[in-house]
Specification:
Number of helices: 9
Order of helices and strands: EEHEHEHEHHHHEHEH
Shape: globular
Strand content: 5-15%
Structural class: alpha/beta
Number of strands: 7
Helix content: 40-55%
Largest sheet: 7 strands, mixed
Distance between the termini: 25 Å
Length: 256
Amino acid sequence: MYRQSSVSGARATLVFLHGLGNSGRTWDEVAAKLPDDINLVIVDLLGFGDSPQPNWAVYSAKTQAKSLAKTLLANGVFGKVILVGHSMGGLVAIEFAKRFPLLVDSLVLCSPPLYSVDPSDDKKLFVQRDEQLRRLYEFAIKRPENIITVATLAKRYGFMNPAFDVQALNIDAYVAALRANILDQTAMRDLIGLKKPISIVYGTLDPFVIGSNIKRAQERSEYIQVTRFIGGHEIIGSYVDRIVKVIDQQLKQDNV
């Protein structure tokens, strides 16, 4: 757990899940702009931030979802919540909602990287860019030292959220999570199967999000609403206000 606020008589509880290589600090600016009458639970996912990095963990969405359930119960978070996930955190949110539907009111997914990883999948659902990104990730996994170099430069020049942290100490967890969550995912089909209100927000300049996949998911599910804006992947700058606005809309939709 990174941070938790408890408000007497709160109208909703939001659980925030960060992206790959980030931590709960990702959400600091978003949290500061949210109403005072909601509970905030901001989590460091397993392997990131101040959470443990167990050698046994594969850091898959399944493992993260189970770990999240234990974390919420251990910290007295009961009842339904609104899951807010960025990038990999969005995939964990989808997995959690699939496994524990009675604990979830709705989802807000920020820049979810929804790809096909199975060549036998229905090709009408996916586009060739899935394969291009998959090859890029495979290349990165084989050269983790390059990931550290690129991440360090990107953070230095302000392209990444200040919470982004990839270094020699946590590169194993980063690579394991990249393979388990991004490459070996079933999130697209799981998302379409959810019967919960879902808000998706992403930037049209995001190199890691395939807009046509999100569009197809929206076409196949009456529960999905999509907000697009001109911007990138990281929660910095104007993206913060976009997320706050989408969360506010989701709260209204949930009648809370």
